[in-house]
């Protein structure tokens, strides 16, 4: 997601580490938030739901990488990438919200949903902002 084309072969390790830490730190913060709000779900269940819901942005990433195989990147291709990424963002947010928001008390659902949306937005931003 973060690596530029033409970078040396061994330049992928720092980018992998950045994404790895971002995903795990973000999942831990979202999970901790759910637990502190009084959610009826365990820490590891919440981390698993957040991880499984990353499938949609990962699929969007694969399609975006396939679009980069085109010789010339046009505005239309950017909007296709943007649409695919937002579709993955929406799917991930909806799926994880369906699981995690129902485990929260009714008056605290919005407080639980906001960090989930923010987490998937940051991941989606990394996917769509990569330029060839």
TrEMBL record:
Its main location: Golgi. GO terms for biological process: endoplasmic reticulum to Golgi vesicle-mediated transport. Keywords: Membrane, Transmembrane, Transmembrane helix. It is a multi-pass membrane protein. The keyword Cytoplasm does not apply. Residues 19-126 form the Yip1 domain. One of its GO terms (cellular component) is trans-Golgi network. The chain crosses the membrane at residues 16-37, 49-70, 76-99, 111-128. Signal peptide: none annotated. It is found in: Golgi apparatus membrane; Membrane. InterPro entries: Yip1/4-like, Yip1_dom. Belongs to the YIP1 family. This is Protein YIPF. It comes from Ornithodoros moubata. The lineage of its organism: Eukaryota, Metazoa, Ecdysozoa, Arthropoda, Chelicerata.
């Amino acid at each position: 997601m973060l690596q530029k084309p033409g970078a040396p072969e061994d330049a992928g390790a720092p980018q992998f580490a950045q994404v790895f830490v971002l995903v795990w730190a973000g999942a831990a913060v979202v999970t901790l938030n759910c637990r502190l709000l009084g959610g009826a779900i365990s820490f590891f269940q919440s981390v698993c739901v957040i991880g499984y819901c990353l499938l949609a942005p990962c699929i969007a990433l694969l399609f975006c990488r396939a679009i980069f195989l085109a010789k010339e990147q046009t505005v239309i291709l950017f909007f296709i990438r943007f649409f695919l990424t937002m579709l993955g963002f929406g799917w991930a947010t909806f799926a994880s919200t369906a699981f995690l928001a129902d485990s929260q008390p009714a008056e605290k659902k919005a407080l639980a949903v906001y960090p989930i949306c923010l987490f998937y937005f940051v991941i989606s931003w990394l996917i769509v902002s990569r330029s060839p």
